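From the methods appendix. Each design record in this collection lists the tokenized structure first, followed by the designed amino acid sequence. Records were kept in a plain field format so they could be parsed without special tools. The example shown here is representative of the layout used throughout.

RECORD:
FOLD TOKENS (255 positions):
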């Protein structure tokens, strides 16, 4: 069920958005006043923008915005694109989804409500330092750093493009308490943090929990978005009231 909601549902929503946008465009075109004629490129771009807008209403993750926007153009003009464009697209994907194959951790993003719930937990527990292991595009780092100015927030990331974009984002946000480090999460010393957050996949969870047990101080928290540590009962599960009904599994380190 979780696999369906996370991996298939967004793409079904993309199809729905594109279908609705196409239907709206086909309905609108004959109604255009005489003399209003647009080239097919503009019509397809409008259709993509409409689909992206519908996607926002349906709460599709923001990462689908550019996909929705350019999908109609790409489908129709795929053979008109020069060969190097595919190479560039492949390289960008490689640099962004760097850890998908090796670590079996893809890129998907924590939403605003979940980041707010995490910030509330950090405040409630009086955390002074927080790490996002595999910080992606820096959403959590920037949001928590803004919500909790007295918490030192660190993002740990190895996907080169995600690292570069999140560094830029932190610089633009001027959040003095936020940092992004180019480092594998396996090399990060977790003893430095009061709260460690992760949104990874089922694969690394057992190994990560063992690392947390070895390194984290008693009383500190490991918080996993969606993915449980097998056979370990969390101290608490926070249910976030968002579209995907996110669950934050909170594991408290014991002495
Ligand atoms: C599902 S995304 C979560 C992104 C971000 N934490 C968020 O919630 O928005 C997981 C991220 O972990 C990164 N990642 C996976 N394995 C890693 C590793 N060994 N060291 C550092 N980052 C890693 C991936 O590149 C990806 O950006």
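DESIGN:
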């Amino acid at each position: 069920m979780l696999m369906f909601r996370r991996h298939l549902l967004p793409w079904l929503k993309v199809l729905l958005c594109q279908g609705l946008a196409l239907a709206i465009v086909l309905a609108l075109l004959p109604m255009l006043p005489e003399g209003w004629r647009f080239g097919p490129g503009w019509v397809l771009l409008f259709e993509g923008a409409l689909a992206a807008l519908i996607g926002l209403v349906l709460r599709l993750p923001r990462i689908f915005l550019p996909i929705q926007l350019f999908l109609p153009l790409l489908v129709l003009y795929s053979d008109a694109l020069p060969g190097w464009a595919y190479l560039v697209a492949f390289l960008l994907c490689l640099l962004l989804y760097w850890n998908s194959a090796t670590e079996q951790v893809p890129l998907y993003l924590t939403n605003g409500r979940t980041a707010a719930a995490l910030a509330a937990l950090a405040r409630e527990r009086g955390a002074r330092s927080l790490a996002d292991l595999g910080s992606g595009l820096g959403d959590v780092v920037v949001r928590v750093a803004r919500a909790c100015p007295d918490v030192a927030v660190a993002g740990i990331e190895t996907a080169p493009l995600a690292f570069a974009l999140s560094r830029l984002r932190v610089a633009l946000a001027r959040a003095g308490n936020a940092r992004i480090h180019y480092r594998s999460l396996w090399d990060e010393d977790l003893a430095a943090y009061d709260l460690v957050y992760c949104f990874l996949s089922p694969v690394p969870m057992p190994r990560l929990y063992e690392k947390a047990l070895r390194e984290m101080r008693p009383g500190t928290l490991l918080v996993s978005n969606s993915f449980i540590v097998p056979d370990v009962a969390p101290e608490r599960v926070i249910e976030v009231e968002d579209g995907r009904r996110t669950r934050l599994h909170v594991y408290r380190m014991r002495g």
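APPENDIX NOTE: The two ends are 36 Å apart (CA to CA).
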